[in-house]
Amino acid sequence: MNTRRRVAQLALLLIGALAPVVTFAAPDARDVELVQRMTLQEKINQLMLLSKGTMTGPDSAGRPQMSAEELARSGIGFQMSAFEFSAADINRIQKIAVEESRLKIPVVFATDIIHGYWTVFPVPLGLAATWDPNDARRTAAVGGLEGYSHGQRWTFAPMVDHPFDPRWGRVVETFGESPLVSSDYAVATIQGFHRSLAGLPGKPAPADFGVASCLKHYLGYGAVQGGKDYAYVDLSERAIREFHLPPYIAGVQAGAPSVMPAFTTGTGGVPMSANKHLLQDVLRGELGFDGVLVSDYAGITEMRNHGTAADDLDAAVQALRDGTMTVDMEDGVYYAQLAKAVSAGRITIPEIDREVLRALAFKRKLGLFENPYVPENLEKQVRVSAANRAAALDVARKSVVLLKNDGVLPLATARKILVTGPLADSRDDMLGPWHARGRAEDAVSLLAAMKARALRAAGTPVTIDYREGVRLDARGNAVGGDEPRIAAAVAGAKQSDLVIAVVGERQSQSGEAMNRAHLDLPGKQQALVDALVGTGKPVVVVLLTGRALAVPELLEKPNAVVHAFFPGIEGGSALADVLFGDYNPGGKEPVTWPHGVGQLPIHHYDPPNGRPNIPERGDYKAHWLDEPDEPLVPFGFGLSYTSFAYSALDLPAELGRDEALTIRVRVANTGSRDGDEVVQVYSRPEVAHAVAGKRLIAYRRVPVRKGESVAVEFKLPASALATLDADDHWTLFAGRYDLLVGGSSSQGLAGTLTVVDMPRAVRRTADAR
Asked: What's residue 761's pLDDT?
């Protein structure tokens, strides 16, 4: 076994992966026989993922212009399912494939199910704010079942890119900046999708592989320069190993059958679609992945734009030969060029056969040869069902983060409340980007939820007034005429007991290609908040975003700030429950918030330096003249309507390299409400062979009843303390380690332990002698 494979196994211990690696190492004899019967073009067709119609623009590299029916009849292996298709449509097209195509091979229908299908849950970054991976499992299970009822058998999720810069629009689709949290959520998402159909009567699909998952985007996509989507990526091997690779290790170990390489460049400046080192040496070699690689949308032909392929023929050769890319998504490069590549001697038939067998094994594992059709009556049972909506509400509540509160929340005495802000009456913006077939009409705005909740208030009736305040266009830009709207909101505030200002980003400002050079509040929203604060009335800000923002004034001036990453169809109800105190918020931030863009990049794991910012160093130290070192909001931070106290931290004084590490702490609820606390454990070696930052090594969301305390215990392998050595290998150094156990990355109980070479049992025997 090579060194890197041993390193990967150590990484698996670090991230706690749960299930065996999926492999298709032994081809099914039936698939071998099918391949032997195929013409070259039929083999190529099995490697294509296409949707009906045509693409436009420079990426349409030989893509066939066919209807969905024609694609099925010609033996195209995978189809991107059109939004207007129903289960009956899917079955009709599938019937063409299995009855009218020459080889009778079923089609895999695919789409993106990122945070729900019809029942839209919080965006992935919001899921991570619950700090409970089971919420990702529930979201995927619901999304998988609803998607399956519409014919979907493959989804391009989970996305486990490491969000290096919040200006990047796709931060909203990540699980935050901790490799550990991202790994755990990846595993949970995969399990949720794969087991989403286990309870269906008649077993129309495998119980453990109902909707196939796809890890994306391998590797380093989140490190695009300047936070600009599709831009160049230049990563060190160290950054790859420490931050970007761990969730893929966890996902492969959990059984992910497919991986999507990124649009962007990888090591050596080679685009990921053909990056031999990261795809063959690392993914297929070290990690043992033998499943399907699927290009991102038109990613193969885009190698021409990168300047690493002379033409589409060159791109096709590189993708298959160097990238071992199984499925070409949408651009038509394989369809138009692979036969030419074989004729030119640049690609061999066995290389194509290898990928066709992987594609067929994928279909075989989905059970499509035995059960190619989906139940046509299932949609009515599952589409935004009462149970699914209840799950969406529960997860949305858990995702809400209380960033500031001077005691004005929860609402108790206010009887006349002004609700204002451009997002207050918006249902669309609750959904967030990539909401599949989610509909605004199924969502609840905060204004509607507040009005409904006011009707249920006990005692003196609560009245809700609404003024728009300011307006944002579809892209989040200011709209003329805000001054009179702000004046009207101020007038309404003066006649109210309390103001709730619902501000933030529009959903259209997050997601693919939706990058922001500035991270302040769009439009004149800050001016609205300032004017409201100027009335002297209590002001509560409800902040909706798809990323961390740089908004120090927004956190400083109001009485309270409640934050949610786009929380889904039940987001308004969840936020109203939090505001009125029907639910005690317990979410924590999964990313670090900067004071200003000038602080970027800033994370909880940032390593130390040789000239720390301490008074003794005078001017010659690592600091800014015009910004503090500290973040605006630290990673892992979130308040509650109650308070928690930590005590009795128990660590072993010494720990052998091969021993289990047990960490115990007591958490007391010292307030007047039941609540949830997320207990977090961070570690860092005092001395190592290479610079090492603080790492999250364990966490757990724990309910604690008022006036009570609970003992929280973590059992980890000693390898959880490992850091990268100077050769970028995970290494557990002997020596002292600093640990922090608390409610965020910036505060808690500190302790130390010493890792020794000799196991405890051997030490006891030696001492006895």
From this structure: 52
> 149 is written with which tokens?
């009822």
CB 540 within 8 A of CB 408: yes
Query: Tokens standing for 351?
Result: 């290389």
Contact 688, 766 (CB under 8 A): no
pLDDT for 207 = 95
What's the rounded Cα separation, in Å, for the pair 481 and 492? Answer: 17
Indicate the helix (H) or strand (E) that contains 663. Answer: strand 660-669
> Which among 31, 135, 161, 296 is annotated as catalytic?
296
Identity (one letter) of the amino acid at 488? A
Q: Which amino acid, one-letter code, is at 17?
A: A
Is 728 exposed, middle or buried (CB count within 10 Å of its CB: 0-12, 13-18, 19+)? Answer: middle
Phi, then psi, of 201 in degrees rounded to 5: -70, 150
Full DSSP string of 533-570: HTTTS-EEEEEEESS----HHHHHSSSEEEEEE---TT
The residues facing 116 across adjacent strands are: 120
Going by the DSSP 8-state scheme, the letter that residue 279 receives in this structure is I
At 26 the pLDDT is 83
Q: Check: CB of residue 742 under 8 Å from CB of residue 680.
A: yes
Q: Output the furthest CA–CA distance in the chain (Å, rounded).
A: 86
Segments of 288-337 assigned E as strands: 292-293, 328-329
Q: Token pair of 91, please?
A: 């079955």
* Size of the chain, expressed as the number of residues it contains: 769
Cα–Cα distance, 611 to 143 (Å, whole number): 49
Choose among 372, 584, 563, 581: nearest CA to 457: 581
pLDDT at 53: 72
Angle among Cα 708, 577, 119 to the nearest 5 degrees reads 115
What residues form DSSP beta bridges with 654? 754
Instruction: Give every strand in the sheet of 560-565, ordered side by side.
Output: 401-405, 560-565, 539-545, 498-504, 416-420, 463-467
pLDDT of residue 12: 46
Cβ partners under 8 Å of residue 456, min gap 6: none
List CB contacts of 234: < 8 A, sequence separation 6 or more. 223, 225, 265, 269
Prediction pTM value: 0.95
Give the contacts of 598 (CB within 8 A, at least 6 positions apart): 624, 626, 627
Give the type of residue at 683: S
Distance of alpha carbon 682 from alpha carbon 748, whole angstroms: 10
Angle (deg, nearest 10), helices 179-194 and 246-253: 30
Q: Which residues, 6 or more positions from 677, have their beta carbon under 8 angstroms from its beta carbon?
A: 586, 640, 644, 667, 669, 701, 702, 704, 743
Residue 484 makes CB contacts below 8 A (sequence gap 6+) with: none
Indicate the Cα dihedral angle 223, 225, 229, 234, nearest 10°.
-60
Contact 222, 248 (CB under 8 A): no
Parallel, antiparallel, or unpaired for β 695-704 and 675-685?
Answer: antiparallel
**Which amino acid belongs to residue 641?**
Y
Nearest to 50 by CA among 70, 29, 79, 74: 79
- Tell me, what's the pLDDT at 69? 96
CA distance 272 to 473: 36
Do 398 and 586 contact (CB within 8 A), yes or no?
yes
Place of tokens 């308004």: 572
State residue 278's pLDDT score: 98
Count of beta carbons in the 10 Å neighbourhood of residue 609: 10
**Distances from the Cα of 58 to the Cαs of 301, 332, 363, in angstroms?**
9, 12, 31
pLDDT of residue 458: 80
Residue 280 corresponds to which tokens in the numbers above?
Answer: 């063959």
Residue 282 to residue 286: CA distance in whole angstroms: 5
Whether the CB-CB separation of 621 and 614 falls below 8 Å is answered with: yes
The whole-number pLDDT of residue 144 equals 98
**Is 161 part of the annotated catalytic residue set?**
no
Q: How many CB atoms lie within 10 A of CB 67?
A: 11
- State the Cα–Cα distance between residues 720 and 639, nearest whole angstrom: 28
Q: Residues of the chain whose pLDDT is less than 70? A: 1-25, 54-60, 83, 758-769
